[in-house]
Amino acid sequence: MMKYLHLLCLFLTPLAMAAQTPSRDSLGGMSYLSNQKIRVGVDLNLGGSITYVADARKLENVVNNKDWGRQVQLSFYSGPVPFEPNGKKANPHWIDIGWNPIQSGDVAGNRSKILAHDNDGKTIYVKCIPMHWPLDNVPGECYFESWVTLDGNAVKVHARLVNSRPDKTQYPAREQELPAVYTNAPYHRLITYRGDKPFTNDTLSNVKNLNHSGDPDIQFQATENWAANVDENNYGLGIWSPGTQRFACGFFGDTFKGDSKSDATGYIAPNQTEVIDHNMVYDFDYTLILGTVSNIRDYVYHHAKKPGQPAFVFKNTRRHWFYENTTDAGWPIKSELAVKLKPKAALISPDIYWKAKDADELTIVAACNSPADSARVYWRQLNNKVFNDSCSIAFKIIPDARYHTYHIRLRNSAFYSGTLAGLKIALNTAADSKSGGMVHIRSIALRAATNKNVSGALNTAKLKQQVHAHLVKRFKDKKIAGAAVLVAQNGKIVLKDIIGYADIEQRRTLDYNDVFRLASMSKPLTAAAILLLVDQKKISLYDPVYKYIPEFKNLKVAVPVDEHDVKNYQPDPAAPFGVLSASSNYRLVPASRPVTIHDLLTHSSGMGEGVIGYTEINKLPIEPGSTLVSYIPKLSRLPLDFQPGTRTGYSAITGFDICGRIIEIVSGHPLDRFMRERILMPLGMKNTGFVKNLNGLKKIVTLCKTTDSGMVKEKDQYPFAIGTTYLCGSAGVVGTIGDYFHFAQMLANGGVYNGRRILSPRIVNQMTSPQLPGDLGGFPTGANWGLSVRVITGDRSANQPLAKKSFGWSGAFGTHFWVDPVNHVVALYFTNIANAGGSEAETARELERDVSDALKQ
Question: Residue 217 above 70 pLDDT?
Fold first, then answer.
């Protein structure tokens, strides 16, 4: 309502004088929460609006309550304009405001109606039917809900609109106040951060917010998602709205003195431009923070999530995107935006923040059913509200009604630079465009910048020649019994080659449908399954393991009495299954902190990552009939090889099997079922899974080993020795090379494959980025750990030919994959040799060199 602030202050007092709210003391109806730092009160005679926020000791209210258009309250805006139902006439001063239910009451002095209220001393819950502000005694065709809690010096609010309008028209999006906050006159200085270095304690801005002339409200982009009205001593009330950067502000009055009943007032409102559907359920969160500017900013810094590149998955909301010249299929949103193609139709993002140098590609997953074959994306600079043609780039679309992933290289424009703040996607760009057809959009994401000096197209003829020659030589030299290779670039397979036998005794020829033991290439699959739960906010990466498996509380760390035989130990991912000798002479000390899920996924937990750990694990064999339920708690008895997070190693079995058990506990399903239903089947990986789930085990390749006399069948055909009941998320999955390509390509696409989203771009970026300080030690050569994958951080060399930022992992029996996001390459090598060498296998380095050579121009 800020754009009407001048009218509010000029006209409301005389118009509503007769219905002016009585004092809180005489009226009563207040509901309070208090702690040692803050006291908050909601007025049950004003729909549960927040009318009181004060320091718990000083009890000086900072909220302005001069009239019912103020307070801290919910209000929403939509069409039509004017809104005059059933012959009711809008107040002439508010005729242009349209549909506008607000929490306190209407301009004529009619209060909103409380439907429910509860205060258990921890949470205030209020449900009300709001009143339409411009009208006289017209209740809203909706209800509002609020949940208010305290957190130190902050008031946390979850708010909800539940709409049930009989008018089913989808009106154009309008700016929404989320919520409107009115403060007393002394808090007249608007402080926020508007710069291009958010969350770095960079210099703050003092926004000029005076509205003496009745000008439209002042809007600005707050790149740290907060703003505050403070006094001359920098003390006041801040509001933090996670995910919102557009704010409105203003101050009306000729004095900076007054209390909650005075005319003069300051205003702040986080804004999002939203379509408000007739049947919509709209939820949002905000936090009011009382204190100095430093207190307010510190609270935000402590609670805000680290910002990543903007990414939007339209699972069940529009994610604050809105439209020009078009509408969509309406509420509820079902995994996509179904946008109608009309002349000059466009989607516009909320205010966002990114730097061009850090994200040079826009990825859109969409299906188009229309005659149009092109679209255009626009971007705008920080603190510039205008999109223009110079800052745009066209891209081709495929109008076949099938989902495609479009990669738009924004860096190809000379105007793509600097700090950017918004996107616009014009869907129907032809000069003679007509209405008709639909565009279905599942996700829009900005991707991390690539190394422009390295990227190039594969020389496929050279690649095929080199790969085949190396396969033939290794087969003739009896270094492999059989092997399959697959290489893709830009999502298209450019090489498939295969040689040898699936069964050397039966001389059965290997084919692409044969199933290989993935060994430690199971780990990224298990990681993806647990990260899906992180995506769903069912768990946090930094949750302690004991939160889910209590036995892992109060772990101990082994400290060798004689460091001689362990001080130079480096974990060997190439051979993680051997029994390692070590002195058993060690003492136990308490772990300095709990082991977290993040520790498990980055091999930094200390669980089975050194000589002592490996040795002790071998004293706890996985017996036939074991399950994750029966076996995993036993691992809590093992000593850690080092204090959690202080170094890294390689947890061959322990860490990811514990992750598997956590998945079972949180999801309520066995690991194999959860992985199959949520990862494998959506990716079309029909021939991948745990042994118990695959019917085609006749197609599993023979595990062999190289000897001085040639290639022989390995006696232990892992994983059959441990039976089918133990679901080893570390190394127990089997599958085909074609299936695993689907998984690898999904990671390369930022979480999407064949138009279906598995993981969010944010979580894929975290999974495939370095996670640990580089000085911890114990990393694979020239690399760091992502979440289950090796991430290349060093320069190329003879033993490390991959581009920086490449990521992937290997299996002990010769399976190997990597994704090169610089050159958009996915490559896989599958063989099953018991002594292949894992991640250090020469077959892996050979394929990496072949692909690297084929990329050189």
Answer: no
